[in-house]
Amino acid sequence: MNNLIIGQYVPGESMVHQLDPRTKITVIFFYVIVIFFANSFFSYFILAAFAFISAMLTRIPAGYIIRGLKPVWLLIVFTFLLHLFVTKEGDVLFRIFSFYVYSGALIQGFAISLRFFLLILMTSLLTLTTTPIAITDAIEDMLGPLKKVRFPVHELALMMSISLRFIPTLMQETEKISKAQASRGVDFRTGPIKDRIKAIVPLLVPLFVSAFKRAEELAMAMEARGYKGGEGRTKFRELQLSSRDYALFISFVFVLLLFWWARA
Amino acid sequence: MEITFEHVSHIYQPNTPFAFHALKDLSFHIPSGSYTAIIGHTGSGKSTLIQHLNGLLIPTEGRVKVGDFQLEPGKKNKHMKDLRKHVGVVFQYPEHQLFEETVKKDLMFGPLNFGTAETTIEKRIPEILEAVQLPEEVLDRSPFDLSGGQMRRVAIAGILMMDPNVLVLDEPTAGLDPGGRREMMDMFYNLHKEKEMTTILVTHSMEDAMKYADYVLIMNEGRLYMEGQPEEVLIQKKKLEAVGLDVPEMVEFLSMFEEKFGTKIPFHGQNIKELASDMLRVMKWGKCDE
Amino acid sequence: MRELEQSFIQFDEVSFWYNHDEPWALKELSLTIKKNEFVAVIGHNGSGKSTIAKLMNGLLFPQKGEIFVDGLRLSEETVWDIRKKVGMVFQNPDNQFVGTTVEDDVAFGLENHGIPRKEMIERIEQSLKAVGMLDYRKHEPHRLSGGQKQRVAIAGVLAVAPDLIILDEATAMLDPKGRTEIMKTVQRIRKEKKVSILMITHDLHEVTFADRVIVMNRGQKLIEGTPKEVFQQHETLWEIGLDIPFVAKIAAELKQRGIPLNKQPLNNKELLEELWRLHSNM
């Protein structure tokens, strides 16, 4: 599963990397909605072209992206086949055993799979070019208005950023504990499933104990450093829209207009 | 059990951009029943090295021999569990591995995994508790209710319960105060003597290496930088300082003394009392020997 | 109250327990720390030394006695002002690193105190420079060594410009290299800034740089004085499970053998110089 790229960040200096995360989220949000309105060859073509150009602009090797989406290919092919055999529109093209394949099904299958593919491609472009912490900042900023209805936006964002900060630490910890228990004769890899599930207990208990201890100490350190909730706090991380972002917005609106015109 | 490394190399995540060469062409021999100290900076390969001793890692090149067990690249060792039973590893901050409801259960956990009969295990408990200087009352308590120092002793007892032939200690005194450190190091030394356990100590403390070990391995950037008896290796100030390591305080003092007084007091593993006598002799008669 | 004007921290017969059924963690402890003073507190694990630190910036409140920080009496009302004046570095380098990068972590304290962003950027740069970590500003914590993380923690405290920095066993989990890094950093800060330091440790090498040492045992002050004065009582230190520096041990042996050493040496050089003087006169 190591080569699955969804959710992975690839450091870079490309134009797409430097875009404001809010811009990327907004554009992708609308892209995802709009894609469901595509209904002609040309309208699909425009959206696909937009996605491919975006992917090229990230300067991430195409091979890396394609290989990374490998596990998703299966789903896409499955979607295609499902539509191929279920949809009964248009003329019958050919027959496999007792299944009739219609021309409409072929088109439908292609369209839905393409939709699915573009969806995943665009969303992975976000995570490929944006650090998790930048996404968190963007979410905090975009949810800002909800503070008025007492939604704990700041706390939520802090929680997310602390989780991100501690993921590598806890991964290291997991490895250390599993090695210590393996040295005491625990076998995580072989044996019947029942035994392997039991083997997780000596790993999980120490991990939880340590996570709680860390949380306690972290809370104390945060308090010692003057943390008392979101009120009266200033922010170091700042999101600022640049001309690059406006350029993307304008071109995206242009793409949308073109898309609307191209719809059947 | 004797331990031999033959041209051992270890690469983490080979054939990826993240490949990291942690051990490079490492060869050495540790005789059975000896006490060996491994010294080196963080990142010098010490921790990779000790993981080869009980098969947590397999060399990517070369061969590791522990008693009759052999670890070689690409070969699955069916007797891994046997090897782990014979080689007890006390990792850094071993108290982090405690998990059972009671101390007794945690002590029994290791040997049960290795298939030792429950009655045999129960017989071992009093002896092991005595060795780690814990009272029998702790047996029914939760390990998490004990003090930090006691938790560490329970964790160490849990390894000793496996009745290993080789005991590997990875900075076992980290985080303890000086008193606790002394007690624990003496405890390991006694175990080593009484049970004739082959002991391997990973440490930053030149003093401990000098005091307890009969052989030292100095690691630097994944390679064996120096090896030999502590009295030979740990006095080579220039060579050790070249890789950012200090000499023991005694050696440092003797070298400063020689600079000031122009007379050399040879280092022969003397203690502080003997050193004071040596110094008096030099100050009175200008030379060290009577 | 006159005394308060000179001392930055004052403990008046402070007692504290964690649990009713446990013995006092601190018992009627009185102490002061002056402005710009470097005080070291030593003691074995459980001697109450870390409790002192946590009382000083209101992470704990005493059951008896009073604590004054810069003339303010510690209470629920003053605690936030006090935390601005007293910064703290803890033992575990990982469990006090809040930010996802070095500069984010240094910013955390500044954000809490509502420092405007423009000033924040300046202060982050200055304090990272002061601990020699400016080149690492974009680094993530898991790519740093323990010593480097602790230096970032010190930078985070420095940025808020406190009057007192407490290092609560900040070197206990570090390797020798990390320890040296931290001690060098502390000495540099002492030179460059007007700030008091309270160093809590059980490593007696680290106290040689202090102006004053307080030895704690069972929640009480056992010895107080300059490092030299404290090292002279090596037998007491040994008994309560502490170790004394090598040079103090040698000096004690020599004295026992009739060498008339006048001063308690703090390092090898001092001892050898005095011996050389005595030797020339022999």
Automatic annotation (TrEMBL), chain A:
Top-level lineage group: Bacteria
One Gene Ontology molecular-function label: transmembrane transporter activity
Transmembrane parts of this sequence: 28-57, 69-86, 92-111, 118-139, 246-262
InterPro entries recorded: ABC/ECF_trnsptr_transmembrane, EcfT
Keywords: Cell membrane, Membrane, Transmembrane, Transmembrane helix, Transport
Keyword Cell membrane: yes
Any single GO CC term annotated in Swiss-Prot or TrEMBL for this entry: plasma membrane
Coiled coil regions in record: none
Subcellular location: Cell membrane
Membrane topology: Multi-pass membrane protein
Pfam family, one: CbiQ
Assembly and interaction partners: Forms a stable energy-coupling factor (ECF) transporter complex composed of 2 membrane-embedded substrate-binding proteins (S component), 2 ATP-binding proteins (A component) and 2 transmembrane proteins (T component).
Family: Belongs to the energy-coupling factor EcfT family.
Described purpose of this protein according to its UniProt entry: Transmembrane (T) component of an energy-coupling factor (ECF) ABC-transporter complex. Unlike classic ABC transporters this ECF transporter provides the energy necessary to transport a number of different substrates.
Listed name of the protein: Energy-coupling factor transporter transmembrane protein EcfT
Primary gene name: ecfT
UniProtKB/TrEMBL annotation, chain B:
Family of the protein in this entry: Belongs to the ABC transporter superfamily. Energy-coupling factor EcfA family.
Known EC number: 7.-.-.-
Domain ABC transporter: from-to ranges: 3-246
Pfam families xrefs: ABC_tran
Subunit structure: Forms a stable energy-coupling factor (ECF) transporter complex composed of 2 membrane-embedded substrate-binding proteins (S component), 2 ATP-binding proteins (A component) and 2 transmembrane proteins (T component).
Domain of life of the native organism: Bacteria
Source taxonomy: Bacteria, Bacillati, Bacillota, Bacilli, Bacillales
MF terms (GO), sorted A to Z: ATP binding; ATP hydrolysis activity; ATPase-coupled transmembrane transporter activity; cobalt ion transmembrane transporter activity
InterPro entries from the UniProt entry: AAA+_ATPase (IPR003593), ABC_transporter-like_ATP-bd (IPR003439), ABC_transporter-like_CS (IPR017871), ABC_transpr_CbiO/EcfA_su (IPR015856), ECF_ABC_transporter_ATP-bd (IPR050095), EcfA2 (IPR030946), P-loop_NTPase (IPR027417)
GO cellular component: ATP-binding cassette (ABC) transporter complex
Role, per record: ATP-binding (A) component of a common energy-coupling factor (ECF) ABC-transporter complex.
Keyword annotations from UniProtKB, A to Z: ATP-binding, Cell membrane, Membrane, Nucleotide-binding, Translocase, Transport
Name of this protein: Energy-coupling factor transporter ATP-binding protein EcfA2
Localization, UniProt: Cell membrane
Top EC category: translocase
Membrane topology: Peripheral membrane protein
Protein species of origin: Melghiribacillus thermohalophilus
From TrEMBL, chain C:
Membrane topology category: Peripheral membrane protein
Domain of life: Bacteria
CDD domains linked: ABC_cobalt_CbiO_domain1
Major location category of this protein: membrane
InterPro entries linked: AAA+_ATPase (IPR003593), ABC_transporter-like_ATP-bd (IPR003439), ABC_transporter-like_CS (IPR017871), ABC_transpr_CbiO/EcfA_su (IPR015856), ECF_ABC_transporter_ATP-bd (IPR050095), EcfA_1 (IPR030947), P-loop_NTPase (IPR027417)
Localization of this protein: Cell membrane
Any Pfam family hit: ABC_tran
ABC transporter domain boundaries: 9-243
SUPFAM superfamilies: P-loop containing nucleoside triphosphate hydrolases (SSF52540)
SMART domains: AAA (SM00382)
GO-annotated molecular function: ATP binding; ATP hydrolysis activity; ATPase-coupled transmembrane transporter activity; cobalt ion transmembrane transporter activity
Keywords from the named record: ATP-binding, Cell membrane, Membrane, Nucleotide-binding, Translocase, Transport
One Gene Ontology term, aspect cellular component: ATP-binding cassette (ABC) transporter complex
PANTHER family: ENERGY-COUPLING FACTOR TRANSPORTER ATP-BINDING PROTEIN ECFA1, HEAVY METAL TRANSPORTER
Similarity remark: Belongs to the ABC transporter superfamily.
Protein name, entry field: Energy-coupling factor transport system ATP-binding protein
Organism whose genome encodes this protein: Melghiribacillus thermohalophilus
Lineage: Bacteria, Bacillati, Bacillota, Bacilli, Bacillales
